Records
---
Amino acid sequence: MQGLMMDYPLTIDRILEHANRIYPRKKISTKLPDGSMHRYTYANLYGRVKRLANVLDKLGVEPGDRVGTFAWNNYQHLELYYAIPGSGAVIHTLNIRLFPEQLAYVVNHAEDKVVFIDATLLPLFEKVADEIESVQHYVLFNTDAGVETKLPNVSLYEDLMAEASDDYNWRVTDENTAMGLCYTSGTTGDPKGTLYSHRSMYLHTMGANQANVLALTERDVVLPVVPMFHAMAWGLPYSCAFAGAEMILPGPHLQPAALAEMIAEEKVTVPAGVPTIWMMLYQELQENPRDVSHIRVLTVGGAAMPRALIESYEKELDVSVLHAWGMTELSPIGTVSQLQTHHLALPEHEQWDVKERQGYPVAGVEMRIVNEAGEEVSWDGITMGEVQVRGPWIAKGYYKLDASPDHFTPDGWFRTGDVATISEDAYMHITDRTKDLVKSGGEWISSVVLENGLMAHPKVMEAAVIAIPDERWGERPMAVAVLVPEAGAVTTEELNSYLAAKFAKFWLPDKIAFVDEIPKTSVGKFDKKVLRHRYAEGQLG
Ligand code: ADP
């Protein structure tokens, strides 16, 4: 028997309609390239999104077409976040930090028809202009008529907006229609596209706003430092509108001093960004203290938040930290870590143990950890397994690729490629990525844990650990280390005896190579692919 409820499509335009109807006066502010603040309201956003949807029609964008954006976090980018899906097309957020060949690859792979470019980033895009095949129009914003560019078929955003009507009927009636396309940054291979639907993004928005997750309300002032070109800015452009939260968009101003100033002056309650940003902000606040008392929760994800940094924020600055884990393929929110009632009686250091973990799966995300044989392993806080997830906002394939068993299991789970333990009380702790894990004689050695062990040594500045082939054990760990300048030399034996105090003997690296620099990817993670290649070529000794 079928239920007797309305067939109400979950589409992105519903989110904007809600914000305009209920919170028309709430503000959205952008720090412009010249440092001044642009301010308008959700009602203004609504009118401009409708105009922009008409602009897209006029440019010949049709339902299903991919439209690229190459921009910082600003109000124009936000308008595109609503207008493109509202017109039935697909917003393809281009990562401005991709290497040129990867940028050309993703534009061509997605076959973007129009690309909207923040003119402050024009030189970066022009580098790849000659390799782009599909784009018919470019539209520039944050610039005026005097702009010079080698791009063909260029229009100015505000010129097109001025000519367009603000009357528009949203196009999408089927909630399963694609609305967004986001490529992974390719840490582990060619970038792969995740294609979100209206339904998946709508449900993610509700999932992110649950009280046990971000719990955004109309009282919040949200500062998305996480870029709108990376994992949909964690969905904040949509969850803020649903909650009626005020938004502060930092534009290109991501330096710690500028962020500290915005947090103080705009009375930000929820700043959101990766650990590196909060590390720099903490240092800035040490030197130039500012008022951070309005922060309700400092949201952090994208990489592990160091425990010492969580402690510094909470103890010294009285700022509570929400550590989250996610991926582009998860729209991106998967888990969040905050204390539950049964943790409150624990001694302080055990509470930090909990906050350091990536946390429990949010309602809407199912999770399991699995061994090499594909069997589920227990949630005992010790046994490592590959993290697999399923749920309504999790990818079931990659754009234009066959759903390979490397990424998706036959019984419908997404293989994250992360390796973790899960405690009895459901807190996941990431220990590695499957590709980086060292499998030595049937035992798993976490490269990340070993790296952290090495980096705790006072003479080691950076350390990366890779698996090297070994006849007897299959694989053995090797470390590549950069020493603190002028701290003096240290030998492999010294480092290994330092590690021996914390780790089982079979975890100790067989070799340690000392280098000047560790290669990094476009998003600043250790590039272990390059390290493995260098080892195979005999360049690491
Ligand atoms: P990629 O880095 O592969 O391009 P994403 O930007 O989507 O892809 O990053 C997802 C990955 O980032 C996760 O699979 C995980 O390895 C890592 N990650 C995200 N959040 C955390 C966290 N809180 N702690 C540790 N690792 C994290």
---
Amino acid sequence: MASRYQSYTTIEQLPARVGDTVTLNGWVQDKTGKGKLTFIKLRDGSGMVQCVVFKPSVEERVADDAKSLTQESSVSITGTVRAEERAPGGVEIDVTDIKIWQIASEYPITPKEHGVEFLMEHRHLWLRSTRQHAIMRVRAAVIKAIRDFFDMHGFKLMDSPILTPNACEGTSTLFETEYFDLGKAYLTQSGQLYAEASAMALGRVYTFGPTFRAEKSKTRRHLTEFWMVEPEMAYFDLNDDMDLAEDFVEYIVQYCVQNCRKELETLGRDISKLEAVKRPFHRMSYTEAVEWLHANNVKLNKKQPDGTEIQIDFPWGEDFGAPQEEAIMTQFDKPCIIHRYPSEVKAFYMKRDPSDPRVVLAMDMLAPEGAGEIIGGSQREDDHDALQERIRHEGLSEEEFQWYLDLRKFGSVPHSGFGLGVERTVKWITGADHIREVIPFPRMIYRIVP
Ligand code: 4AD
Ligand code: MG
């Protein structure tokens, strides 16, 4: 017995249904008329198709219903699929019947240009527009590619908690809440510490969920709530970690090239730039990157105590900001991994480089075309005493990290992992110029509605 679920067709299936009579369920994106003809642009989430109502060949009621449709009215349209070379999907519908679910009130988002603030306030409706629709489909593909990649390679999904008793990525960007009689709890900044415990139980794992940063920065690449996927692998050193990150990112990008061509074209993305994202990527150490900045005369703006700014040579030991990362990436059309950062600018859990104790076995992957950092990762400190010393040095609570230190007492092994930001990746692949466009409902310092 055909279920309701199977009995209707989606717009993306139409090219295979030429000549058939089908029923589509959707919303009216636009309606125009000319003499005896009414043209309805119907959107159903899978695509858009033009439906043609020819008055002489339908019941009068159908012709009247077609005329009454407003933008975003919800309708089921029945008709015959006709091949039409000039149409975007190669087909049109010759309408035989219309069922109106609702005639929509005057829709606030019209085809004219709207300001971003207005669109953000109407995010719940803005998601229906062609561009947002294409971005969300790429986002879904990126998430599918992420899960497929790890599932295919024998990683086990291990969820990390979202309410946590302590910080993972520094104490300055924590969202805090009261937790019954137990004091304060924090929204997790990263599932990594728990992923490490999981990796000691299952070998290769990944954790995938929302993460939170009380970021005060109003940039095009910061959200306060974002999705991060974090693989963690026992018996992996930094090189293994970087190799995996390259395979992984190549897979995601090529998956989108193969499965989202229509969406990327809609977005006006230069697909050849994505096709070029193949291993091997570029790699350089932090120290080499600093030397490159010096050799290419890329200066750092430094504020003086009196408020004036001067330009100085980039000092070894300082963290890279977006300007340095962008400068470094101007020479590359593929991602570049920068490794071995000064320990002072990186998190407490990173292992020191045995051959240079000033640096840790960290790695960041920077994407080209101004996209910036998409991955942060490292080999973890696996020596109990060294880790304890780092926890003390950072002024973190040893008691709260007791369970984490335990992992270094009971069969400690070299292990590594990284975190990839889903929105940073989708922003890069889609070419969106602001991160707020690549998550359905963005959370930023100045926005929590809708
Ligand atoms: O570099 P981060 O802070 O690394 C970690 O959290 C590690 N614990 C990951 C690990 O080793 N398991 O964050 C990882 C990635 C960044 O490279 C970036 O893509 C993304 O998360 N990210 C953000 N995305 C959007 N908005 C923000 N505020 C972000 N902060 C980090
Ligand atoms: Mg980082």
